[in-house]
Amino acid sequence: MPSHPQLAAEFIQDKDRAHWHDQSLWFVRSKRDKAAQQLPEWELLREQASQIKQHTVSRLPDLLEEFERNATARGVHVHWARNATEHNEIVHGILKKHNVSRVVKSKSMLTEECHLNPYLERHGIEIIDTDLGERIVQMQNMPPSHIVMPAIHIKKEEIGELFHEKLGTEKGATDPQYLTEAARQHLRQKFIQAEAGITGVNFAIAETGGFVVCTNEGNADLGTSLNKLHIACMGIEKLIPRAGDLSVFLRLLARSATGQPITTYSSHFHGPAPGQEMHIVLLDNGRSEISGSDEFRRSLNCIRCAACMNTCPVYRRSGGYSYSNTVPGPIGSILGPARDPKANSTLPFACSLCGSCTDVCPVKIDLHHQLLTWRKEIRVKGFLPFSKRLSMKMMSWMMQVPRLYKLGGKMARWIVPKLPRFLLYNRLNDWGKQRELPEFPKQSFREWMKQNHDKQ
Amino acid sequence: MTSSKDEILSKLRKQSVPPVELPDLEAPELTQRWIQYPDPTAQFAEVLSGVGGVCYQVKDIAEANQKLAELAAFSEARKVCSQISGCGDPNVSIAEITDPHDFEDIDFAILPGEYAVAENGAVWITNDGGPARVLYFLAQHVALFVPASAVVNNMPEAYQRLAFASNSFGTFMSGPSKTADIEQSLVIGAHGARSLSVFLVEDAFQTN
């Protein structure tokens, strides 16, 4: 798998697009700030949310059993899956039992994580993503590049071209209103024809055995209210203890995600409708390992609002695909290595440690601290590339001998300004990529201190 | 062979996770800090219009009928459903429908909402999950009727009123269906209702 720096380098080759991507996300981040400022109790809410989530993880096995008990009492079938394979087999098994060949799915990053779509397609089942952004990337045969706005990286001209080819819209049409209308007509047909609806889960409530799904388009509701079969797929960390806790989380989620006061539809499902069958699949897939780790446990607080990626200067400039992980950005750079540290070894380094992610996180995950911890872990596990290890070693060697450091600085100040560009800006100098080196000062700080300060 | 459930639970049980106390959300030092509005109804109307909906404050169903008649979406509607007695002059009877698919071509649905939330312009609706549930999402245009006295300030107040004992389904609806998935341009009317009107009705009214 190509590393983050490699993929990011490809993304920033198109400077205009990278700039446009950066601006689009900053716009969302600004909306989030305005929404947060509307509530004077914002910081208190973050504190409550963080505590509730940490409590949940500390009692996860009991709460999961409580949830299963209460959901079962409401007539819901509860399934447990250790990993993605088991998850997909369970979902396929339910669909097969009901002879379902057409499924509509509302957005669920968990089923992306499990690669459910290709699995079901291999078994001859049509599965249509119904969130507009997800439908767009599905038509392109690509995964989402962002967990809340899956098609944030695609321009309307490209969507116009795609819809012309797939949905027969007018060639050259780029008006979002017109394109959305075409998608509405297309997807309404799919809703009507489908035999089962799959949704993700934003929150599951131990106390009541119910769960909540949030969308702006109403696609989860259409998909489930037209069908006799509803399958909900959730990670075990999506649990909260009490229904009242939603009063905290629903106030934080949409404001943090897109700056809306709440999602258009926040639907609470408590058991199947009359004549309907409802299933919930609880997935572990590495979450229990994170729960056992003192360093990374708090990453299970995550409610997938994407505020951390919208604010991240690296994500905004490198694009979601550069992470090669279902969840990109700061939180993805913690969850990715937790699942496979070798494959995701470059992700914790895709971070300037600016701490902006930690500042906006509605559930107070100490993101940039965890990213720093991951860097150490990756060094210990031996996944740090040779070039990084070597430069660190050389730096440490030089720093330990003050006279050598002094001499090195002096030489650099003398020679660097005289060097021709091709010697300075080449493959070996990562600092000279995409930017000019700063002008070298005439004297060192030490010399300046001697001259201006120590005299007095 | 142990089941997946046993394996997941036993793995979690073996861990020593330091206990964290669950905050008491009913504690007065918290509840006192939740936002209040001098005029929750005005706040609700303002936030609702910000998310693409419209709020009408009316005395009774007769006044609501007058307002409805002025709405282009209503007067142009060919198929109308109503769950509010004496409202909207419906021509499709909800009671006779057993398959939600039969509501496919409903243009306007007039439906009850339980109460409204000032902080986010949402209306709580609840439903037993029968075929009429789909109307909230499938109808081209939706009007929700809510008692004018049922406007709460914030979500904590909303959840104090909620119970999940009987009905299998409930949702907070805040404005019409929308998306911004194409270059962040807000488009109203993605899959669900193209418009949402909320009627806050002063006098008591009946649902059918």
How many β-strand stretches of chain B? 11
Query: Judging from the principal axes of the Cα atoms, what is the shape of chain A?
Result: globular
Most extensive chain-chain interface: A-B, 91 and 76 residues
Largest sheet of chain B: 5 strands, parallel
Coarse morphology of chain B = globular
* CA radius of gyration of chain A: 25 Å
CATH superfamily of the domain at 4-154 and 195-289 in chain A: NagB/RpiA/CoA transferase-like
Q: What do you see in this structure?
A:
Chain B: This is Lactate utilization protein C. Chain B: Pfam families: LUD_dom. Chain B: It comes from Gimesia panareensis. Chain A is α/β, with parallel strands linked by helices and 456 residues long. Among the domains of chain A are: 4-154 and 195-289, NagB/RpiA/CoA transferase-like (Rossmann fold); 395-454, no CATH class. Chain A contains 22 helices and 10 strands. In chain A, the strands form 2 sheets. In chain A, strands 1-10-7-4-2-3 form a 6-stranded parallel β-sheet, sandwiched between helices. In chain A, strands 8-5-6-9 form a 4-stranded mixed β-sheet. In chain A, a hairpin with a 4-residue loop joins strand 5 and strand 6 (210-215). Chain A is globular and about 85 Å long. The N and C termini of chain A lie far apart (59 Å). The model of chain A has no long low-confidence stretch (mean pLDDT 95). Chain B is an alpha/beta fold. In chain B, 25% of the residues lie in helices and 23% in strands. Chain B contains 7 helices and 11 strands. Chain B has helices at residues 4-14, 28-31, 40-50, 61-70, 72-75, 135-138, 155-161; strands at residues 54-58, 80-82, 108-112, 115-117, 122-127, 141-147, 151-152, 169-173, 178-179, 187-188, 195-201. In chain B, the strands form 3 sheets. Chain B has a 5-stranded parallel β-sheet with strand order 1-11-6-3-2. The longest helix of chain B has 11 residues, at 4-14. At the A-B interface, helix 2, helix 3, helix 4, helix 8 and helix 10 of A face helix 1, helix 6, helix 7, strand 8 and strand 9 of B. Strand 9 of chain A pairs antiparallel with strand 8 of chain B.
